[in-house]
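Incident review: delayed structure delivery

Summary: a single-chain prediction request sat in the queue longer than the usual turnaround. Root cause was a stuck worker, restarted by the on-call engineer. No data loss occurred. The affected request and its eventual output are reproduced below so the record is complete for anyone auditing the incident later.

Affected input:
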Amino acid sequence: MHVLHDAPLAPLTTFRLGGPADRLVTATTDAEVVSAVREADAAGTPLLVIGGGSNLVIGDAGFAGTAVRIATRGVELAGTRLELAAGEVWTDAVARTVEAGLAGIECLAGIPGSAGATPIQNVGAYGQEVSSTITEVIAYDRRTHETVTLSNDECAFSYRHSRFKAEPDRYVVLRVRFELEDAGGLSAPLKYAETARALGVEPGERVPLADARETVLKLRTGKGMVLDPEDHDTWSAGSFFTNPILTEAQFAAFRARVKERLGEDAEPPAYPAGEGHTKTSAAWLIDKAGFTKGYGSGPARISTKHTLALTNRGGASTEDLLALAREVVAGVREAFGIILVNEPVTVGASL
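Output delivered after worker restart:
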């Protein structure tokens, strides 16, 4: 293990924001991860686990405790079964499965972060979610002090949520196992209309795996959602807010507010989200509330490419970012009666 004191954490996040940690441990094996976590827990020291840092907002004061950076490596591919160490770079792992001719995660290309973070958020994009292919998650249980294997059902996946997110101080993900599909070099059936349109096919059709991956990468790049050190639109956590899921009564009230504000012909985005529930678009809400691309005058602004991304234009503080987030939340609530929920995890900071 590599240990640093008063260690900068901003460079470990895609926002490039936040103060230092009292102590930073870089763990390169599962055993080192478990050892570092056990040591902190035994000493009663606050613990922060960092993977790719792509879903993390750290306060300007930093973290008064031990941060464990998971830098484990390991990819095992046997037939259609894939096992990834938590520290593996997710987008590299996706590329590898495409090269191997396996379908199931090709539309999750370009998502920054580590493999171990994917089950926590139930990462999803362009019609795919990891919950559809994850079979097991191996994790260290800080409550029982044991390494456990959780089945897909035990992970309790839902939209951008899981058992790991529900119990954030209990599990540390070590490895993730997937069951992919050999469809003769073709993708899984395309579920996302934008992807299908870009490929010139209908939803439900399959396309060559490489074409699906490349198309998603182009779409994400156009929205500033693929990391690029030279592009401040990518100095973000991707989507900062989750898409609201509303009950029938909530959606009816929301729809009425939309017509009142935008005119009788206006219709909000609406997608099925399970019995009695409808999902709408956070990006649409933000835009229609008046927060357009590039909004802001300070060092933290809305992306010039996508209204759902809040960005560090260089020189921003975490408080600059949070002030912008609060302004957006308040504006959407006032306009449409919906309270947006932040997707990134906040440490030493809150909206």
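Verification: The first strand starts at residue 2 and ends at 8.
Action items: add queue-age alerting; document worker restart procedure.
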